[in-house]
Design goal:
about 280 residues; alpha+beta; 6-stranded antiparallel sheet; 4-stranded antiparallel sheet; 5 helices; globular; Phytyl_CoA_dOase-like
């Protein structure tokens, strides 16, 4: 059996499915070229203020997160009504020490139920040498406590990680070619090592949730990407064009709300005891 329903069965069983067809290699190269053009305008780095929800500023990213090639298999897992809770660029420069500690994404979602997944879309090849994401299949059955040892090389901004590293025999590297993607449950334990290669490693982490979920506190906004709105999240707006002043103002408001949510003190979450900020998912 092939297609999104086979993906759903695989992901429901093990908590992860890969490699999956996403976009074409040519489309992945075009996306990376757009990203590098933006980086070139900001000293060769992706600006920090674009660390979360860049789809609110670039129509081509909004169109990506709503692309049926990505949302079809997610809908087979979560149902026909989907929100994009977050999208962010994950990059590791060549020969860099940064790594992502072993963690579960849901530690900072604050959702009523852990019904969500992360799509990791590769823009470059992902290999063990360049610090690809690794996962622990079947680890999505329960939420784990996280602590914050604050290693400066840990790319998770609040430094969260599970207390004990998984047994190496239980971990699987997620090997992808440009345009391919993986899907993992928001409770699947995952992390990634440093990039020891001579080339960048880049991908997009797109986090989808079932549209009927509710969020603790003020919560954050979300983009309706498929089906109908259940009225549980303030909805985001597709930008009309790049560098659109209205889109920049909308992103500003959304980001202030985002920062308040993910850094809230003592937040109760659906999947752990500590909130987390910024990018996860390797």
């Amino acid at each position: 059996m092939n297609g999104p329903f086979a993906t759903a069965l695989q992901a429901q069983d093990s908590g992860v499915a890969f490699p999956l067809p996403g976009i074409t290699a040519a489309e992945a190269a075009a996306l990376l070229a757009r990203i590098e053009t933006i980086e070139a305008r900001h000293g060769g780095r992706w600006p920090k203020w674009l660390g979360a929800k860049p789809h609110l500023l670039f129509p081509w990213l909004w169109d990506l997160i709503t692309d049926p090639r990505l949302t079809d298999p997610v809908a087979a897992l979560l149902g026909p009504d989907l929100l994009c809770w977050q999208c962010n660029l994950i990059s590791k420069p060549p020969a860099s020490a940064g790594y992502v500690a072993w963690h579960q994404d849901v530690t900072y979602y604050g959702l009523s139920e852990p019904r969500g997944v992360t799509v990791w879309l590769a823009l470059t090849p992902t290999t063990p040498e360049n610090g690809c994401m690794s996962v622990v299949p079947f680890s999505h059955r329960m939420a784990l406590d996280h602590h914050r040892p604050q290693d400066p090389d840990n790319l998770l901004p609040l430094g969260e990680e599970i207390p004990a590293e998984p047994d190496p025999g239980t971990t699987v590297p997620v090997l992808l070619q440009p345009g391919e993607m993986s899907i993992h449950h928001m409770l699947t334990v995952h992390g990634s090592g440093p990039n020891r290669s001579a080339a960048r490693r880049s991908g997009l982490a797109i986090r989808y949730i079932a549209a009927d979920l509710v969020q603790s506190g003020e919560g954050v906004t979300a983009a309706l990407v498929r089906g109908r709105d259940h009225g549980t999240f303030p909805l985001e707006q597709r930008p009309l064009a790049e560098d659109d002043p209205a889109a920049r103002a909308h992103h500003d408001v959304v980001m202030r709300r985002w920062v308040r949510h993910i850094t809230r003190a003592g937040a109760e979450t659906a999947g752990g005891t500590s909130p987390a900020a910024g990018p996860g998912s390797g």
